[in-house]
# Entry
Amino acid sequence: MSAGLKVEGLIAGYGETVVLDGLSFELPPGGTLAVLGRNGVGKTTLLTTLMGITTRHSGTIALGDQQIEKLPVHMRARNGLGFVPQEREVFPSLTVEENLQVSALPGGWDIERVYDLFPRLKERRKNTGNRLSGGEQQMVAVARALLGAPKVLLLDEPLEGLAPIVIESLFEALIKIRDETGLSMILVEQKADLALSFARDFVVIDRGKIVHRGPSKELQGDHDRQHRLLGVAEA
Amino acid sequence: MTKPSSTTTLAPAALAPISKLWATVGHVLPWAIAIGFFFVAEGSLSIGTQIMIWILFALSLDLILGYAGIVTLGHAAFFGVGAYAAGLFSIHFSPDPLIGHIFAIVVSGLLGLVTGALILHTTGVTFLMLTLATVSLIFEFGNQTRWLTGGDDGLQGMRVDPIFGMFEFNIFGQTAYVYALVVLFIWFLFSWRLMHSPFGRSLDGIRQNSRRMRAIGTPVWWRLLAIYGISAAMAGSAGALLAHSTRFVGLSSLSLLTSGIVTVMLILGGTRKLYGAFIGAAIYYLVQDSTAKINPHFWEFIVGGMLIITVLFLEGGLMDLGRIGRRLISRFRQRSDLP
# Structure
């Protein structure tokens, strides 16, 4: 099941420091949004604020027709926000299967369905988290989010630091999730071409504000414009 | 034809039956020793009972310290309150040890839930200090309420009926030993099942990364509170065993030192293994008992030395010796298979 996400006037940061400065955007049910921008502009902070991990100073977040900005982290997850963090954060002493079991929530995917999506995880199900490659850890991270009955999936640089062949297979899996489940998804990604080919819409963040937005088609393949837009962000 | 190499012949699949055998031995051995002890050490059953009580107490600590990562200095509070609850119940309500035992479990479990609800919002040093304050407050309460607890004279005058009206607590300690063994076995099975359930795995996850557990929808605080209450109930059960087997409850059962001793036992044996509590408590008690006969202060020196060596060289406590031994044996077997 998919739901929309509506963010209005979001100001958030770490302690007194403001990182997100009045962000507003809307993701329709089943929509996909690429969040672009250079390092340190607040892309990850946006996702962690949506999850309730980073302090929100003001602004509202609506998941479907429910306001979630005041909910604790675990309740946001239980209400349908699935988060795949940049660091993957696989539990090192738990096996793959145990990593998946602790994430399962009623109404989420079952483990067999996850294994169909990532057959590699089935092969490695008895291995502990600290004995997995980066790509396998990323698969576990995505799988864990799917087991938690998400309505909106937040992906923080899921392809970062992976070998090209692993990127290809993981990206295929993400496309499969998008096409077969119709989940709403927000993808934070440095690789602009990949992100734009994945998402229907994009936003560019700079210094905590959205400085550009539009349908991904506008930018896809237009490297000059990509450079110009992301270059503006770099200025 | 090329002869397969030794590493091929002793690949993980080939070693699996050996591992399974070791695992079975590891499960059976402690209980076989405990049962065997009953028949061969009739004159030392009271020491055996004490060891099992401490094992149960250390096991309860393993659930929170080992699995959930809750570092506490106040676990004796639940042990002592369980002991006093069982003692007071036998004096004022009923001398039936089983009903008194259940009463002690409920009282200490509730105390765990109430204190846990108050202090589990905090972490780190703050939490540690609050556990210290809790045990100190309860100790002082026990000390000041002489009319109820006997103060520093301890609680005396307990009456304990035979278990099921048949098995009387005798001076040889047979009934107390079997009683403690059965209670320990029940709690062990419960703990084993619990720690291998998704709930137990989630505690493991919370210990490793509580932020991540929250982000996958786990109500971290509630899970910690639940295991804190369960652990307190188990510690109270150990306290009740102590009260019933000795018919006396001393103020020391509530002391900070008792919290320290059980922590040392668990770290000696190894956390997060359940059986670590068995090894740690048994070794601690046996070293204490044997060396104290030579010199009443010398045992602390020995235990302290063992603790230093364990912490420095055996990350998983004395339980690691088994793993190291198994590894050496399999290496030796691999070498002996070389052409």
Remarks:
- Residues 5-86+144-234 of chain A form a domain with the Rossmann fold fold (CATH 3.40.50.300).
